[in-house]
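#data-curation
PF: Archiving a pair of folding outputs for the training set. Convention for this channel: one message per protein, sequence first, structure tokens after, nothing in between. First:
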Amino acid sequence: ILNFQITLAIYKYQTIYDMDKVVILGRVSTDKQDYQRQVNELQDYCNRVGWEVVNIFVNKVSGAKSIEERTELQQMIQYIKENEISRVVCLEVSRLGRNTLESLRVIQILNEHKVSLYIKNYNLETLNADGKPNPITSLITTILLEIASMERQTIRERMKSGQQQYIERCRKNG
């Protein structure tokens, strides 16, 4: 029995020690939105799969902003350069950004530091187990980023159209 308890204790220690260290990335576009739902869902997921969340980077900023304009991305990049992180976990690719080139730049930086981006809603991992970029994920991610960029443009057009219609109604009604 004592031998079994020692073996179990060693296994628990190794399991905790060997857990992948991850950071969570969350983003919402406006001050009226809340990113806590994203964080909670990702923390629950990481707990279920045995990943240790060592830091959380969140911000309320437009996804169209550049890396230099997004403090949470700059802090996250600096953190992964200084710490041994296995992956960055985000809920969906649009949380990384809605600017395709800027988002691909972030993925490239992560890849250079052997840190995989895990996109939960599509179960995509940018690096293979050997640490090399996954070409299929790269293709799919690029397409998804272009769709996110297109969604952003569509939202802007709808808002502009709605504002113009409102102004015209106000003019007619005095």
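PF: Second:
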Amino acid sequence: APSSFERYVKCALHVHSTQSDGVCTPEEVAAWHRRHGYQCLVISDHDTVTSTSHLSTPGFVLLPGEEIGLKLLVGDFLAKRNEKIERKIPINLHLNIIGLQAHSSFASLVGKDLHTSLAEIIEYVSKQDGVVIVNHPLTSSFEMTSTAKSKQFDDGWSLGEELARIRQPYFMEI
């Protein structure tokens, strides 16, 4: 039977440092996770790839990561009870991009619809052997106006359900 290490890797995939809005330096973040039995860590600071390769040690790997924020639109492709919702709602989507060595600007996608934008990002990152994680999709990553939130719950559609329709491989943080 495989040992627990062969079956599971304890890894933190969404951690910030003082390079964005965290309270610990990258070195302190890595040391804490190492002391607490993690084998893998992604420091995913906002809109920057923090240099961490020097912090990897045998049995403890740091992967390059970055959390990006995009303002996108939802609405034109959403369906409620076989009825198309015509209104577009702006949302702020937060994504962890893991495995890319340098910052990637996706500014050209701002203002586009969620489905198209996320598909383009996943394709771009996948071609570079990276991974995309949709961060906290049902909470703060969708910073909608109170009107949009009310419409979301009143009309019975869920942004999480819309994310589930995307066919490219990605992960979702819950």
